[in-house]
Design a protein that fits this description.
The chain is mostly helical. It has one domain: de novo design (two linked rop proteins) (Up-down Bundle). Helix 1 packs antiparallel against helix 2, helix 1 runs antiparallel to helix 4 and helix 3 runs antiparallel to helix 4. The chain is elongated. The two termini are 17 Å apart.
Length: 119
């Protein structure tokens, strides 16, 4: 069992989740059960799946959780784009969070490839 807190990808994903929570605090109340909830859920899912995967006994099992985390990253990427296009997120905030998310997705891809090569 690996300590997820030691993984750079988890640390970066956690920072993205914190950024999403901060960003969505200012969303309209009407979006609380819509976009706000979806963005928070998908951002948390990235870090949570990395953490859960670390508890798995095999690299193949860990890899499956990383793939799920990557899917949540793609989902969040779209929600960020939608939020920007709806005028809920400034271009500056969008670019910053999208850039951080892209780094996390690249790190996940790299780790998935590394684990897949070992199997």
């Amino acid at each position: 069992m690996k300590d997820f807190r030691q993984l750079n990808v988890w640390q970066r994903a956690h920072q993205v989740a914190l950024g999403i929570y901060k960003l969505t605090r200012d969303f309209p109340k009407g979006e609380l059960y819509g976009l706000t909830s979806q963005m928070r859920r998908s951002s948390v899912s990235i870090a949570a799946n990395i953490a859960e995967g670390c508890a798995q006994k095999t690299d193949a099992s860990f890899c499956r959780y990383l793939v799920i985390a990557l899917g949540s990253g793609a989902e969040l990427d779209y929600y960020l784009l939608l939020s920007r296009d709806l005028g809920l997120v400034s271009e500056t905030n969008y670019e910053s969070l999208q850039s951080d998310l892209t780094v996390v997705k690249k790190m996940l891809n790299s780790l998935i490839q590394k684990l897949s090569a070992k199997s």
